[in-house]
Design goal:
Elements (H helix, E strand, L loop, with lengths): L1 E3 L4 H4 L4 H8 E2 L8 E6 L5 E5 L6 E2 L15 E7 L4 E5 L2 E5 L4 E4 L6 E5 L8 E7 L7 E3 L7 E3 L8 E7 L10 E7 L5 E2 L4 E2 L3 E8 L7 E7 L2 E7 L4 E4 L6 E4 L4 E8 L8 E2 L7
Parallel strand pairs: 1-3
Antiparallel strand pairs: 2-21, 3-4, 4-11, 5-10, 6-9, 6-11, 7-8, 7-10, 9-12, 13-14, 14-15, 15-23, 16-22, 17-24, 18-21, 18-23, 19-20, 19-22
Length: 276
Amino acid sequence: MEIRQAIGPNEAQKFDSESLRAHFLVQHLVQPNRLRTIYSHHDRMIIGAALPIVQKLELPTYPNLKADFFLQRREMGIINLGGNGVISADDQTFDLANLDCLYLGKGTERVTLRSNDIADPAVFFLLSTPAHQAHPTRHLTKEAAAPAQMGAASTANERTIYKYIHQLGIQSCQLVMGLTILAPGSVWNTMPAHVHDRRMEAYFYFDLAPEHRVFHFMGQPQQTRHLVVGNHEAVISPPWSIHSGCGTASYGFVWGMAGENRDFADMDLVPVPELK
């Protein structure tokens, strides 16, 4: 497990592109027959991905967690971004189609992940946060996630938002998780931009062709910076940072938050003219 330290806004203002990428961009997360994880000290969120092809993968126990098993004091959300897959959690088994979500509560001891078809493997993206109580394990399909249409073609941000783990959806201790799919021809996400000082956020970009990129904007509203992000790459977004992006083509992204509350609408909007 790679560990990333928390970075403040004064430090980030002095970073060049290489330093920004080293601290906030997560690359090579999706690797064949591996489960890779990143531990961020921003709200102690763990970001990970698993690509099981010829074998099932088991969620390991990492020494730095100082726990008997991964979810002894944690909860986890998993979204499948690939072909059909199966997740076993203790004595329960769940079939996850593309864009399905599974929540695993505190105390789940053994978790394994596998694909149904090696020619079309599952791509499991996961987020985990500390938990103080156990909530039931729950599977939610994308159709049941109450998709909401937002934006417009005229502003190039027509998109569909799927909310899975949140105050009015799957219950959790502090994890909030969902995804956004941009309509063909739309490239802007989360604009106008916002910050939420009470929570950090992680983005994971997917369905982006190899020749395309997303320009992910971050930083304080009056001190913006950017990261150039490719397919299956993640961004760690601190509470003080905006998190918005513009792609060279349409794409999708998973978003997840951890911190003070589970209210999806808890955000401090930044009018476009105020960005610098």
